[in-house]
Amino acid sequence: MVPSRPAFVLHDHRRPSPHFDLRLEEDGVLRSWAVPRGLPTSSREDRLAIAVGDHDLDHLTYEDEHKSIADIGWWEDLGRTPKRRLLVLHGREASVRYALIDTGRDWLVHRTKDQPAP
User: Fold this and answer.
1) Domain region containing 22
2) Where is the DNA ligase D 3'-phosphoesterase domain (predicted)?
3) 10 Å Cβ neighbour count for 45?
4) What is the DSSP code (8-state) at residue 64?
């Protein structure tokens, strides 16, 4: 039996102010971060990610008039330490490697220089 792959979703959330929500399926819930400016598009920039409360798994495909799915797919855990999680998001159009870095106050999302082969 092949284990199921953990899901992720990136919500484009328009209220209370425009931002994105990154949600990773883990331990039966969606671990969540609000990412005000969205995921970084280059390795030369980091983006603020604010950890928010876990969400139920049924939130994975949730949409309404203020929230839409910007990307969805599965994610791969490439390793972690207490301060950093390295992962690949396998979305609808691309697979991108990121690091989530715990600064002690908030988190940063960093797009790594090394990326998976297309």
Assistant:
1) 7-111
2) 11-66
3) 12
4) B
In a domain, 118, yes or no: no
**Per-residue pLDDT averaged across 21-50, rounded?**
96
Question: Structure tokens of 115?
Answer: 């990326």
Q: Looking at the 3D structure of the chain, how many domains does it have?
A: 1
Residue 104 forms part of a structural domain: yes
Is the pTM above the cut of 0.85? yes
Q: Using CA atoms, how far apart are residues 27 and 101, in angstroms rounded to an integer? A: 20
Whether the per-residue pLDDT at 1 is higher than 60: the answer is no
Residue 2 domain-assigned (yes or no)? no
* Within-domain flag for 91: yes
CA dihedral 110, 10, 97, 3 (to 10 degrees): 140
Query: What CA dihedral angle connects 115, 99, 36 and 31, to 10 degrees?
Result: 120
User: 67: which 2 tokens?
Assistant: 């929230």
Token representation of residue 41: 């598009």
Q: Are 2 and 16 in contact (CB under 8 A)?
A: no
